[in-house]
Amino acid sequence: MTTTLTWLGHSTWLIDTAGQRVLIDPFLTGNPAATVTADQVTADFILVSHGHGDHVGDTVAIARRTGALVIANYEITEWLARQGVENVHAMNTGGAHPFPFGHLKLTIAHHTSMLPDGANGGNPVGFILRLADGRKLYHAADTGLFYDMKLIGDEGIDLAILPIGDNYTMGPDDALRAVQLIQPKRVIPTHYNTWELIAQDAHAWAARVRADSTAQAVVLKPGEVYRWE
Ligand code: NI
Ligand code: MN
Q1: What does each C-alpha distance from 42 to 2, 98, 112, 212 come to in angstroms?
Q2: What is the mean pLDDT of residues 8-37?
Q3: Among candidates 103, 106, 69, 105, which has minimal Cα distance to 85?
Q4: Amino acid 52: pLDDT
Q5: How many angstroms separate the CA atoms of 46 and 200, rounded?
Q6: Beta bridge partners of 90
Q7: Of 137, 223, 209, 138, which is closest to residue 180 (Cα–Cα)?
Q8: Residue 21: which H helix or E strand, with range?
Q9: Distance 216 CA to ligand 1 centre (A)
Q10: Which of 89, 125, 136, 229 is 20 to 30 A from 157 in CA distance terms?
């Protein structure tokens, strides 16, 4: 089974798997790295990792237009319901649930989560997605390094998507340590080069990953599609 992952810039990913389109943290309007506009994107499901504007992004508009089911923590799904998004599924840290696109579990993430209007966005999360073919994807979302990444790695991660931008999240050094804790088969960096403040040389980071871990590092350009065979 081929699953494709499209990096839409920043921390926004479109995963096409098992005939379902899963959009993660759809920040397109106001995203200088975005390669599509919010009204061009289709989705069956939207996952929101935390309340910050560069992650909630265009969730309300895309969910209303497409009718996609939005999955997030309880505080964010309640907030989305108040914005007129009716099709929501609340989860919380450590909880897992089967969906048509795979088995989704929410992990901890060390970050914050206030929503754009100042509402409480609960705790930020990351995602472990077990695909229909059994392979596992870990999207860490916005987080600092944490030692429990070792527990996540113990699950057997085939592909990890990790932030490397620094300032708001892990930078390159801690993201390399994260790879060493998780020991994924492959890793793709995200949440960098959107703005000058989080500018990073992803290819230099990938070279360090190849030298200091067993993971295969893959660097994409915004808009690029990765065929995960
Ligand atoms: Ni954030
Ligand atoms: Mn962010």
Answers
A1: 19, 21, 28, 38
A2: 97
A3: 69
A4: 98
A5: 27
A6: 72
A7: 209
A8: strand 20-24
A9: 26
A10: 89
Kindly list the distances between the CA atom of residue 188 and the CA atoms of 72, 99, 108, 208, 214, in Å, as whole numbers in the listed order. Answer: 23, 24, 19, 13, 14
For residues 155 and 182, give the distance between their C-alpha atoms in angstroms, rounded to a whole number. Answer: 9
CA of 137 to the centre of ligand 2 (A): 19
Rounded-to-10 torsion of CA 196, 200, 203, 207? 170
pLDDT of the residue at 1: 77
pLDDT at 131: 98
- Taking the CA of 112 as reference, the closest ligand is 1
CA gap 67, 44 in Å, rounded? 7
Span 58-94, pLDDT tens digits:
999 999 999 999 999 999 999 999 999 999 999 999 9
SS3 34: coil
d(CA 110, CA 145): 8
Instruction: Give me the domains of the chain, ranges plus CATH numbers.
Output: 3-228 (3.60.15.10)
133 Cα: distance to centroid of ligand 1 (angstroms): 31
Mean pLDDT along residues 207-222: 98
Give the tokens for residue 88.
């929501």
pLDDT tens digits for range 87-123? 999 999 999 999 999 999 999 999 999 999 999 999 9
